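User: Could you write out the 3D structure of this protein bound to nicotinamide-adenine-dinucleotide? I've included everything you need below.
Assistant: Certainly. Input first, then the structure.
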Amino acid sequence: MPSLLLLPGDGIGPEVMAATERVIDFFNRRGAGFELQHGLVGGSAVDKEGAPVSEETLAIGEAVDAILFGAVGGPQYDELSYEMRPEAGLLRLRKHFELFANIRPAICYPALADASSLKREVVEGLDIIILRELTGGVYFGEPKTIEDLGNGQKRAIDTQIYDTYEIDRIARAAFELARTRRQHVTSMEKRNVMKSGVLWREVVEDAHKDGNTDITLSHMLADAGAMQLVRDPKQFDVIVCDNLFGDMLSDIAAQLTGSLGMLPSASLGAVDERSGRRRALYEPVHGSAPDIAGKGIANPIAMIASFGMALQYSFGMVNEAKALDGAIAAALADGLRTADIAHGVTPVSTNEMTDAILGKLEKAL
Ligand code: NAD
């Protein structure tokens, strides 16, 4: 039986997760057989279990096929120590399960093309993926210090480090992804000024030659890539880059689609020997949105679409994933919008948006 651990988290996390559980129930009524376990993460886990993610929760995560994660954080937790902060729960999960590949799709639903800051013709029908290396690079490299130089000056040091295997596995993940799409990978780095960029390109080339020449590979300097993303984003299919550039480029891509409440993501690790599936955590890009928490108005689409990515990448249920995506597009095309994407339309609640998506799914499946 396919199994999932649901970690709703804080703020609007539980609200959008409840909406997603209704979608999972829908598939279960049609025989999908998802077995669900529930756990705490973030501030709610600190409050009840004394840590932003407990050992028990990690153990349950080991036993399931995939994790669905809501959002964590809130002003009441801002003064906690670094290790106890809600975000530490997410970092711990990523590290524990070695989730090295972060997939962020940027899809622009036709009904929302006007919500983008770019012109409709530039973004309408956009469907690209940013694949970001998530566990290496400058965010983790040592030394990472601020030194006092003793002359009234300080020196800050961050270290960008990449080993061959880290680049090789993310490059291969990019080729694998592109094979299910439009067979084009663009690798972005800064080989003109960074040694890690030189190695990055070399290893990506080697991984391409080794069994992946059915995929078209292009290279672009990351700064030029950022410019191309806003000039003509539809030229891309899968963009692969390191942790730092991926962080920036995926936020640019996010803005192309209009709203934070629309963006799902997946973080994948190595293939698990027991299940034959890649370790995986699926989560919306947005945070816990304390400003609207408890009001029942959060947009559930990013969380529901994150489950859609689980259908596709963890469970091979490609038709169901497409049907779910189609149901979201159809509900939006009918004019149903939560407040964040309303743009003049009378907004609907989280529940009403979910009802509309479920109604479209009923018709499609
Ligand atoms: P945020 O994403 O929570 O909210 C930014 C803005 O977007 C807010 O105005 C919010 O109302 C709106 N928004 C976000 N998601 C929405 C949705 N689904 N529907 C409607 N509107 C939505 O980012 P923030 O305000 O910078 O951070 C709030 C808290 O979330 C902080 O504690 C932060 O650390 C945390 N955070 C967590 C994650 C995560 O869990 N992965 C990611 C980012 C921020």
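The two ends are 21 Å apart (CA to CA).
User: Perfect, thank you.
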